Amino acid sequence: MGKAPGTVTYMGQREGAKSILSVINYDENTLDIHEVVDLGQIDFHQKSEFTSWIDVVGLSDELFIAELGKLTQINPLVLEDIVNTQQRPKIDEYENYIFGVFKMLYLNENQEIVSEHLAMVLMESSVIVFQELQDDVFDGLRERIKSKSGRIRTRGADYLFFALLDAVVDNYFVILEHINHRIEMLEDEVYDNPTNDVAHRIQELKKEVLKLRRQIAPVKELVGRLLDSESSLITKDTKLFLRDVQDHCIEINESLQIYREMSMSLMEMYMSNMSNKMNEVMKVLTIMASIFIPLTFIAGVYGMNFDHMPELHSEHGYPIVWGVMIAMFIGMLIYFKRKKWL
Amino acid sequence: MGKAPGTVTYMGQREGAKSILSVINYDENTLDIHEVVDLGQIDFHQKSEFTSWIDVVGLSDELFIAELGKLTQINPLVLEDIVNTQQRPKIDEYENYIFGVFKMLYLNENQEIVSEHLAMVLMESSVIVFQELQDDVFDGLRERIKSKSGRIRTRGADYLFFALLDAVVDNYFVILEHINHRIEMLEDEVYDNPTNDVAHRIQELKKEVLKLRRQIAPVKELVGRLLDSESSLITKDTKLFLRDVQDHCIEINESLQIYREMSMSLMEMYMSNMSNKMNEVMKVLTIMASIFIPLTFIAGVYGMNFDHMPELHSEHGYPIVWGVMIAMFIGMLIYFKRKKWL
Amino acid sequence: MGKAPGTVTYMGQREGAKSILSVINYDENTLDIHEVVDLGQIDFHQKSEFTSWIDVVGLSDELFIAELGKLTQINPLVLEDIVNTQQRPKIDEYENYIFGVFKMLYLNENQEIVSEHLAMVLMESSVIVFQELQDDVFDGLRERIKSKSGRIRTRGADYLFFALLDAVVDNYFVILEHINHRIEMLEDEVYDNPTNDVAHRIQELKKEVLKLRRQIAPVKELVGRLLDSESSLITKDTKLFLRDVQDHCIEINESLQIYREMSMSLMEMYMSNMSNKMNEVMKVLTIMASIFIPLTFIAGVYGMNFDHMPELHSEHGYPIVWGVMIAMFIGMLIYFKRKKWL
Amino acid sequence: MGKAPGTVTYMGQREGAKSILSVINYDENTLDIHEVVDLGQIDFHQKSEFTSWIDVVGLSDELFIAELGKLTQINPLVLEDIVNTQQRPKIDEYENYIFGVFKMLYLNENQEIVSEHLAMVLMESSVIVFQELQDDVFDGLRERIKSKSGRIRTRGADYLFFALLDAVVDNYFVILEHINHRIEMLEDEVYDNPTNDVAHRIQELKKEVLKLRRQIAPVKELVGRLLDSESSLITKDTKLFLRDVQDHCIEINESLQIYREMSMSLMEMYMSNMSNKMNEVMKVLTIMASIFIPLTFIAGVYGMNFDHMPELHSEHGYPIVWGVMIAMFIGMLIYFKRKKWL
Amino acid sequence: MGKAPGTVTYMGQREGAKSILSVINYDENTLDIHEVVDLGQIDFHQKSEFTSWIDVVGLSDELFIAELGKLTQINPLVLEDIVNTQQRPKIDEYENYIFGVFKMLYLNENQEIVSEHLAMVLMESSVIVFQELQDDVFDGLRERIKSKSGRIRTRGADYLFFALLDAVVDNYFVILEHINHRIEMLEDEVYDNPTNDVAHRIQELKKEVLKLRRQIAPVKELVGRLLDSESSLITKDTKLFLRDVQDHCIEINESLQIYREMSMSLMEMYMSNMSNKMNEVMKVLTIMASIFIPLTFIAGVYGMNFDHMPELHSEHGYPIVWGVMIAMFIGMLIYFKRKKWL
């Protein structure tokens, strides 16, 4: 805030790490993997017969990013978005490249949802991928490139761009599955044991679904914009595949909508269970009090010390009082039985 | 997940079964039914004067599907959708065919709603239908073809495609009827006996309506897209019929919307009944306690053992106390009567 | 269900009655009323200088409808909609006629809302009206034709079509008035005496408003479509009047929306009244118990039988205890008064 | 209802009053005010160099309105809307005039919102204003005309039409202010003293906001339509001012939306306060009962009349029992203190 | 209200202060700061090679504003909006200038959100900024101009306009952060100590979010309109930056939407916690009453004074009664333990 627009400023929480650059060059027959490279080794402008997947890990190295920006002639506003890890999903088309920001979502070892900033730049024959951490959701894709499985090796950079996006979106389904599982667990708990903690976790879930919607929902529209784009960087063939990604995005958005309604239902169910519990508590109290308070009164009457209480001196007084009290007891039981409180 | 896009991967839960192919060829005068056929026996490309209904049951036989894909030159992405039993409804137009995925919904013997994946490919003179199980909602249509009733025998493949879709959509009404019936039953139960289980079933219903909406709602828009399509595969005449299907879809969507609101009303009604019950319980308690606690106090007073309590020795003490107590009792009854608690 | 599309199948509950046909022919100077006519007597195709209002009562006579369809060359899909009494409102334009389905709504003698299926076909110089029962909302219109009041006698079939539709829509206002009246009554009852039955009737009302919306809401859009239509059957002059009908429809939809929100408010008000009642009940209980339980305790203390209880033998013990108890009683009263519970 | 469309029928509740006509003619230099005029004195068709504000008060004089309609050649459908005091806001363009219906809203002496029907017809050089009562919101405007302040005297009839509409919309802000004030008062009352009457008034408020929305919300769109209109009656210059009116309408609609949400929040707050009160009541009851019921039990034990109760004969029995009871009393107080119930 | 449209009337609450004018002229090499200037010193129409930031502080000096309006030939309607501090955000394009109203939002020293009216006029080579108070959010921008950091010194007035708007929007994020912080604090309090005051503050928060939405939400659309504008005042280059501002606006709107849902969740959580507390209170009451009322009854029975009560004279009567009472006590404890109430 307060900085000039277009200033390359890292927004994340992993300051000080150096950016690491790796490159995979491939065509149908060749495969070249360079684990760690220097910026100077890559010629971004020479038209290549290879497709290059250039991977930048670590976004806090502002000098590196600025240097890369100079070499690739990427607009400073784009560089700013690349390192702004709070940037919401977006796709912008420029003359020579298409730039996109997405959120990679995956579960960490504690089964918590991790959201990682991902920026991608599609150029003529290369895709530059910017990510904060080494972890990503692209291992399957790397495997496919190495093993030549699928179409990936026979197609160009636009297909690589699509394949990366597809991997990101595919992983959203894992997250949805996780959310679904949590909803089901909460459903059981609401039914069995609706403690205050369950209510709290339902609200947590609602918040998480809201956050996911924010990170995922824009993607559908962005892909739609790519489909309508007239950029020469994306072939008609690849658009066919992008349409598939769009389908997935629609499905994901629908699921999130449904999860939202289900979490609201959960809360409703919780409140209704609470009411039920309260009803039960009140019934116990009412039954106990309604039965024994009148009986106590009767006992109290014959505990009075008046000189002239003929009942006290009658021989059958005591058993008669017991009789009356038992009759009242049974009467109340029948009454509550009829009301279905017992 | 993690697979290359366009890979034909069965997503359902019925692995290992072989696909069975059957064919019905017909025109106005001829009818040819082949119960079980080999793939090789069908020539998908020869323009035929017959209309062919090609039925594939069983989607886990990936080799078979791939082979069929090769013969029909159906796009691998389409094949992927055909065997992806989780695919949401979609219609895609290609140059030589129109491809659609729908959900067949029917009630099983336990009156549970079953959702079955259905894929259809409309070609020049044939419709290929892909389904997971032998069960389907097309028996009436088969009968009509056999008995030459209606228009079906006099029209082409596009009409067959419509008729299949029409049968699917018609069956949605059966499901709606079932939902409606459940809502009415729940209404009665909420009124008569609002147990926790009823609340649970209302929430179940809400979830089911949400799920149905997801499976059914897209169909309306898809049919709309067919109506706007300029594909030569669908004649203007058939579009007239499709408009009817679209009308039905609109009606179904409206019904689902109404069912959703009604299930929310049910929950509201349930909560209001719970409140009512609680009120009733509390009234019983309050009446019993308010009447007998003061009376018990009076009895207690005259159970005290002070040496100097002149009332105790008065001859009329005891009957007077009884009189006071009865007066208080009657007073309370009148009070509660006035408050309409009795 | 399961029938071939375009099959003329009566869907209502009044099987077996014969259709009755009546005709009113009129122009500015002539008026010809035929109460009961045979189908054969009408020539549907001869261009007439008269405007004909052809009224068909009874839709279960499938033979009659089919015969009429043949004579008028109405599309079988339209015939299907004519006898399908569950058909939602629709307007379809064909080359030679415009077809519409609407719901006539009126109150029966028990002040219940009756919904009657109405189909109308506008042809060059006639309007064919299909209705299930003799009852309808067109008596005022018939009167106007007979008495030559208004414009009706000087205009053509399109104006008649409009006038019929206008009568249907005008009657919706009667229904709205009825709903409004019920809401006001329920408001009073919720305030005065919120029994469970009132909650039930609020829910009934909500359901009825939902159902009305479904039957009425589409009309607005349908009329809009007529206004945009380029059919030569509707003159520019009549469109001016149709715009008025559309205005009414907008107003009706807005009212229904407001009634919906008001019925939700009613339920809220009901719940808040229930809470209030509960609060009141609890206050009575709390006041009674809080006052008398401690007093009873004190009485209990001096009812104990210890040998050495000096207070019991003090001459002023008894009046002092009474004093303490009265002081406590007054103290509690003041306490509850301060809390505004009394 | 049941009347022929286009019949001029007064719909209000002030039957029998005669319509009164007054005219203000003005241009930059001249000002001519005629308090009461006869219809015959006005020439509606002669093109005038003056701008005329023709004011008709009283709409139940159907003969007068009909006569005026004949003289001005206003369409009968428009006349019908002019006298239909239930007509919702609308603007219709005709070849020679633009017709609008609006609701004047103002507060009466009891601070109740009064809604008055207002119809305006903009012609070449005059605006005819139809209102039910002498009261209106145009006094400021009249003053401006008389005192030559602002632009009004230098501009034509379209500016007058705008100025009238502007006065109507400006007064909506007064109403909003009033609503806002009521919301703030209710907020205080909900917080201080949430009686049933407050809930009732919140619901009243909600209803009133709904009604206002219905009367005000359409104006925004209507003005938008005027802005898009190509009628020669409205100059480009005046449209600049109309855009301002539209801005106000947007603001008003937003405010109404916010008031709606705030009244819903009020109800929520009310319910939460009710719950709080209930909690407080229950705590008092629970504390009193939990403390004194066990103590009473102990007193009861030593009130028993068994022959062999050694404690009774112990010299220290009585003080020990008191000690136990006081200890229990203090224990309970500490317990409730810890639970923060005290 | 009641004033003629286009009258310059100050609407704020800081009457009587004189307007203060300051000017910053700059190009890439030159920087000229004039702290306090007279209106006459500025030539608004001479095309300048410098970019001028003209700052007007204080809007209640109507004479000054009117004079400035005359010199700059700004439309009186615009002047009216400039001094109308209640004006909602708007952007209007005129031939020679673009006019915008926004709300500057910042936190004051009490951490309350302050909303300040801001009007800006973009002309050929200058931007006139109107603000009520000396305080603003532009210090960072002034610094950048002075220190030549960023692009600002190398670009024209349109970039200055963008930079000002960017500073305003950037500050919205500070406000969002503040809201977010308050939500988190309330979440904790709802969980720990749900007093009535917390409910009140949740409602306050909801109201504040509503108000913010009203002030912020329109900006997104306004910037969108600037992006579509064909005015020559805004270069294509600057539009690239405006697109960024629009992105921020979208993000802000989404956040506000989420905060709204979260504040509703807070209220739900509060209500559910209240229910929980009530349940707990009721359980304590029920347990205490259910255990001791029956025991007191038993004690009462043996406090009766009948002559013939054989138990009283049995030697083991007293210990047996104690045994029974302890057994009942333990029985009840087990019962409540099983119900998980303890």
From TrEMBL, chains A, B, C, D, E:
Q: Which gene encodes it?
A: corA
Do the record's keywords include Glycosyltransferase?
no
Which cellular component appears as one GO term in the record?
A: plasma membrane
Alphabetically ordered keywords of this record? Cell membrane, Coiled coil, Ion transport, Magnesium, Membrane, Transmembrane, Transmembrane helix, Transport
- Predominant subcellular localization, coarse grouping: membrane
Q: From what superkingdom does this record's organism come? A: Bacteria
Q: Where are the transmembrane segments?
A: 284-304, 316-336
The residues forming a coiled coil are: 195-222
Q: What does this protein do?
A: Mediates influx of magnesium ions.
Q: Which InterPro entries match?
A: CorA_cytoplasmic_dom (IPR045861), CorA_TM1_TM2 (IPR045863), Mg/Co-transport_prot_CorA (IPR004488), MgTranspt_CorA/ZnTranspt_ZntB (IPR002523)
Species, as recorded = Cellulophaga baltica
Localization annotation: Cell membrane; Membrane
Which membrane topology describes this protein? Multi-pass membrane protein
Q: Protein name, please?
A: Magnesium transport protein CorA
What GO annotations for molecular function exist for this entry? cobalt ion binding; cobalt ion transmembrane transporter activity; magnesium ion binding; magnesium ion transmembrane transporter activity
Record-stated family: Belongs to the CorA metal ion transporter (MIT) (TC 1.A.35) family.
